[in-house]
Amino acid sequence: MPPTPRWVFAVAGWLLFALAATPAAAAEEVGDWLDRMARAIDGLNYRGTVVHMRDGHVDTLRIIHRVDERGIRERIYSIDGQPREVLRDGNHVRTLLDGDQALVIQGGIGARLLPNRPVSQLSSPVVAYRMRFAGSDRVAGMRARVIEIRPRDQFRYGHRFWLEESTGMLLRSALLDRNGRALQKMTFVDIELGVPISDRELAPDLAVRDAAEAHMDEEDISPPAAAARLRRATWTPARLPDGFRLASVGRGVNPDGRAFEHMLFSDGLASFSVYVEEGGHAGASERIEAIGPVHVYTGTVENHRVTVVGEVPSETVALVAQELERRR
Amino acid sequence: MTESKREQLSSLMDGELDRGAREFLVRRLAGDRELKSRWSRYHTIRACLQRESSPGQSLSDRVAAALVEEPAVEVEQRAGVGWLKPLGGVAIAASVAVAALVAINTSLLEQGHGERLVDEPGFVSQPTALDLPFTQPLVPVSYSEISPADRQRISTYVLRHNQAAGGSGVVSYVPIVAGARMAAPSESNAMGSEPGER
Hints:
Chain A has 328 residues and is an alpha+beta fold. Helix content of chain A is 19%, strand content 46%. Chain B is mostly helical and 198 residues long. The radius of gyration of chain B is 23 Å and the shape is elongated.
């Protein structure tokens, strides 16, 4: 057999290089778009109508979002079903419910345990997902770029995002199962971007009277203190699906009056929380509840009641609970 | 229009009604104008989501038109709704479940602070024998079958999770608490092993 000419190796080398480089570059560019999306969602003024669909159940919401030097103000209210309204003013959030089950929930968004960082600064979504551009489309009268994000394993869902071409604003999204079927969808059916928003538009419509009030207040901790806390978590899963990392640790008291430790894990897109209650607990039966794509595992680990909650497949909450152990 | 009628309409759309109820509702639809207009709105919205576009009018026009017809939200003012006593700290209604978590999780993971976590949990890269019990499909139990105390606990935890994870804007901060539509009832005994026993 004659010796292979050198140029064959050179061409093969280039081909290999091109093949290897292209997906990485694409992922990076998709990351930039996700970054733009996160900035647009927070940093633009807009008002629009969103339709949300899950399990064949349709919810229609109005969203009004304003950002100025005093921060973000947002009002989201339902226009079908039970009257519901969420009002956000900076770090403070009020959820109003009317109807047979009137309720007001007050909470601080300061409780947000994850810092507000552009997605592109994260390496982990690239580890756990394949991301690509999936063409262009038109949503709510605007040109949109479609981004498809598929998980590399069975421990998380996929996403499809429709982002407005000039701003990166999210216009439509779908949460996908392993087979690419949509578990839930939301879409703007009309949206005005970059419009002035008056105070009046941000005022609540609902006057909920005689309603129960609940509070979800949480201590506000500085990022360095939060980082120190990560190392003090009492419990940890021995193993986790690729890409998930401990993002924050907190404490609280549940409605039964039991103190619990709260650990939040994230892979940059998906997240789940692990709650371990303090004090012995009679062995509760082990089970998983589904609230749409959200799964909730309840069980007992070393005599402590454990609850794992997240918008992840049931396999994930079950695996994490099974792997949970006291930190040594 | 009552909540139960809306619920029935929704079930009809999903093909969840039995034959008797279906026929009854269809007869009503023929006679009830309000019900009929809602029925057509639901279809417009669904068509929009499923992108069954029809020529002529644009989708957003059609849905916008459907939404304009939506009657204003009625605010009932009732006296003394003593269905939930606020508990200290976090108290979420037992019968209220977090359903419409309209969250897009642009959840952002904190990275760095200049140092790696010492005890970072290990990562699973390949399925191992340990994963086997979970390759069987787990059958989620019905949310409505669990006790009120459990529901309250779960609601609290779900809300808290959302608050912690769903960081930035839009819909992201929307733990809109609503009447729950949960998975179909079925007991779960599919779990593999007890996590505590190792």
